[in-house]
Amino acid sequence: MPWLNLCTRESKIAKAEISRLKNDTDSHSSEIEEKENELDGVRKKLESLSVLLEDHELLCPECKAPLLQRHFHTIFGIAGGREMEADIEIVEYECGLVLEEGKADPSYPCKNTKQNQP
User: Fold this and answer.
1) Residue 91: which pLDDT band, with cuts at 50, 70 and 90?
2) Per-chain mean pLDDT for the chain
């Protein structure tokens, strides 16, 4: 019965391969665990950096595009018969969103949001 010999040989090969894979896994399990711990640490750092970026307005609040520039513009006016000046902050993101301090709506909308796409 040649097919029985063939099946037996294939079975021995499969068992040997399983054994080799198991030994390989056992010998590298500490390295795998170390890399998994390293990866977990990187994930935690990325999460805290993401929160930090959002808290400091370094990402577009709508699409998370990075901050392009933040600058101040001085405005002049008269209040109570006196000349006054004030600095307003202008924040621009790579997506085109421009926010000006004191304005409820953006000066220029985010190009990456669905409502602003053609």
Assistant:
1) very high
2) 79
Nearest to 91 by CA among 114, 60, 64: 60
Note the pTM of the prediction, 2 decimals: 0.54
**Token reading at 66:** 């990075």
Q: Which two tokens stand for residue 95?
A: 């997506």
Residue 86 Cα to chain centre, angstroms: 36
What are the backbone dihedrals phi and psi of residue 13, each rounded to the nearest 5 degrees, phi first? -65, -45
Half-sphere exposure of 45 (CA within 13 A, CB side): 6
Domains: count for the chain:
2
99: Cβ contacts below 8 Å, ≥ 6 apart: 90, 91, 106, 107
Whether residue 72 lies inside any domain: the answer is yes
Determine the structural domain holding residue 91 and report its residue range: 67-116
Q: Is 32 helix (H, G, I), strand (E, B) or coil?
A: helix
Tens digits of residue pLDDT in 35-49: 777 777 777 887 887
